[in-house]
Amino acid sequence: MNTFSNIVVAIDGSAPSEAAFEAACSLAGDRGGRLTAVFVREPRPSFHAHHIEWAYADEETRRAGLTALRRAAEAAHRERGLTIETKLLDGDIVDEIVAYAKKIRADAIVVGSHGRTGLQRALVGSVAERLMRTSTVPVLVVVRKLTTADARVDRGVA
Amino acid sequence: MTSTIFRRILVGVDGSQTSRSACEMAVGLALAFRSAVRFVCVIDEARLVSDFSMGTKRDVGNVVECLTAAAHDVLEEARQRASSAGVEADAVLLEGDVVDRILEAAAEWRADIIVAGTHARPQSLHPSLGSKVYELLRRSTLPVLVCR
Q1: What is the pLDDT of residues B53-111, one digit of tens each?
Q2: Is the pLDDT of residue B124 over 80?
Q3: Which residues of B68-94 are buried (b: 16+ CB within 10 A; e: fewer)?
Q4: Least CB-CB distance to A156: which of B1, B118, B147?
Q5: CA-nearest residue of chain A to B143?
Q6: What is the ipTM of this complex?
Q7: Any idea what the CATH number is for the domain that residue B40 is in?
Q8: Which residues pair with B40 in a beta bridge?
Q9: B1 part of a folded domain
Q10: How many domains does one find in chain B?
Q11: Disruptive mutation site among A141, A147, A152 for chain B (greatest number of B CBs within 10 Å)
Q12: Residue ranges of the domains in chain A?
């Protein structure tokens, strides 16, 4: 059985998402698996005198997303010799991840336990939970960052 | 070179369909990473007694007995599935709150990952792991792989 041969990992620059990325790299690594990092831009409000506008198309988030993806790809290459694919998506984070995973026929989705939201306590796992409800492929939810000792062993240095 | 991040895989099983998927995934992972697998099934006896006695003093020993026997079957089936794939696995039956016991078992065994199914059997009265997987996710400090 070929488990985890085509993985989608969601990144957003948060610590749990870095841990998720590490785990995804370990899952894909060494076995020639395909790994795609996705960054989902959610609509952001801009506040006006009498209304709120929701827009995806702001240059700042686009650059932030592309930078996060590029850094992830560089780290995977530098630290593990992995070549990964990257994709910037716009929309609802859960819908986009699930749709993209389906599109490329991914066999697993990896996410951090919570994203960058400031309301972490209230929202812990809300994305992960919605993902689990929506996704038809297994979802790996990663909580903490691997220790440096783990990472060393993992790279075969220790 | 073999990655070593998933040396020990703890799988919560409850006999539901998604718990079977969880077994399959765990076996696949274990083959890829040469991990050891431990299957854990939890019976919440206190909850079971209060549910099935409807709060009366009536003896529900039969229900507990049936469920315990079924849990043994579920664990044995999982263990056999693993060993037929050449994966080293053992099985543990625990009593108490499902999420508490799974987390304790994972910590005690020093598991690297917990694997579980998303759903319990439909209309299941007994609080099996599938119905509590969100709670597990919220409380776990280990990565949790959720299968359906």
Answers
A1: 888 988 988 889 999 999 999 999 999 999 999 999 999 999 999 999 999 999 999 99
A2: no
A3: beebeebbebbbebbeeeebebebeeb
A4: B1
A5: A142
A6: 0.86
A7: 3.40.50.620
A8: B12, B92
A9: no
A10: 1
A11: A141
A12: 6-152
